[in-house]
């Protein structure tokens, strides 16, 4: 599932491609991927200019000139591609937004969605999200106050969107490895130094992953060399059996709270 770095990469690249451009036509192949009738969706969205693209947690918000917002959550297996018809990957497209002869394809939206909402409805939809971990105001003191009464495991706490926004299965493992803590450690068992290290690892891993375009396997557009570059820099995620970059021991894969979890049992404590 795309997480904060992947959606931040999409936001940055799409702002360069479609910000300020009108949506000239719309194709809806899966009605369950939207929240209103197709005719209503098309009437309110077609010919509207994209005024800005914003990210919140794992969501993208496409702000339209009429005040409506397209709220995107790709969920598991969802991705996007931008380009001409002949460049489109051989994948089933659920929704297509066209900008002249260039198209934004929404692919793999079996669980994901593109909802048309008012500004007020968007705020209501996202009201339970926790702080953004890369926000300039997300300080160490803020983090320490957030975890003061937390008793859950590191991994399950980090993926809780009401605790922090945007961290999922992949980066919770990367963060735990970087902080040299086992993902099943209880938050209330951490000493002061470990709490500080966890905060620093959250910021470092997410910043690094965003810098390298996250881990998406498919480029956003032809010639896109940024999207997915973090794949080569993964510490533990999807690296079962490979050598730990820090100590050389084999990376282990287990399930933790029904989530696949990757870690090194030798140098994570």
From TrEMBL:
Keywords in alphabetical order: DNA damage, DNA repair, DNA-binding, Glycosidase, Hydrolase, Lyase, Metal-binding, Multifunctional enzyme, Zinc, Zinc-finger
Annotated FPG-type domain residues: 235-269
Formamidopyrimidine-DNA glycosylase catalytic domain: residues covered: 2-112
Protein family: Belongs to the FPG family.
Keyword check for Hydrolase: yes
Subunit and interaction comment: Monomer.
InterPro entries linked: FPG_cat, FPG_Glyclase, FPG_N, H2TH_FPG, Ribosomal_uS13-like_H2TH, Znf_DNA_glyclase/AP_lyase, Znf_FPG/IleRS
EC nos: 3.2.2.23, 4.2.99.18
SMART domains: Fapy_DNA_glyco, H2TH
Catalytic activity: Hydrolysis of DNA containing ring-opened 7-methylguanine residues, releasing 2,6-diamino-4-hydroxy-5-(N-methyl)formamidopyrimidine; 2'-deoxyribonucleotide-(2'-deoxyribose 5'-phosphate)-2'-deoxyribonucleotide-DNA = a 3'-end 2'-deoxyribonucleotide-(2,3-dehydro-2,3-deoxyribose 5'-phosphate)-DNA + a 5'-end 5'-phospho-2'-deoxyribonucleoside-DNA + H(+)
UniProt protein name: Formamidopyrimidine-DNA glycosylase
GO molecular function, one term: class I DNA-(apurinic or apyrimidinic site) endonuclease activity
Organism of this sequence: Halobacillus amylolyticus
């Amino acid at each position: 599932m795309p997480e904060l770095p992947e959606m931040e990469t999409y936001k940055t690249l799409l702002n360069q491609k479609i910000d300020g451009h009108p949506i000239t036509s719309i194709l809806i192949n899966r009605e369950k991927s939207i929240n209103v009738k197709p005719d209503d969706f098309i009437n309110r969205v077609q010919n509207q200019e994209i005024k800005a693209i914003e990210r919140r947690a794992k969501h993208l918000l496409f702000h339209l000139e009429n005040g409506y917002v397209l709220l995107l959550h790709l969920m598991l297996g969802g991705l996007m591609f931008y380009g001409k018809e002949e460049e489109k990957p051989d994948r089933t497209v659920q929704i297509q937004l066209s900008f002249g002869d260039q198209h934004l394809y929404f692919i793999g939206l079996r669980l994901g969605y593109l909802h048309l909402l008012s500004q007020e409805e968007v705020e209501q939809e996202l009201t339970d999200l926790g702080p953004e971990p890369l926000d300039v105001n997300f300080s160490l003191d803020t983090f320490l106050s957030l975890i003061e009464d937390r008793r859950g495991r590191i991994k399950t706490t980090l993926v809780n969107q009401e605790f922090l926004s945007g961290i999922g299965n992949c980066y919770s493992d990367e963060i735990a490895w970087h902080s040299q803590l086992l993902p099943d450690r209880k938050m209330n068992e951490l000493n002061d130094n470990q709490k500080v290290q966890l905060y620093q690892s959250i910021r470092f891993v997410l910043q690094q992953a965003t810098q390298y375009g996250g881990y998406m396997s498919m480029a956003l557009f032809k010639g896109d060399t940024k999207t997915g570059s973090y794949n080569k820099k993964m510490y533990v995620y999807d690296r079962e059996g490979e050598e730990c970059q820090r100590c050389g021991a084999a990376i282990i894969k287990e399930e933790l709270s029904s989530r696949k979890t990757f870690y090194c049992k030798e140098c994570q404590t």
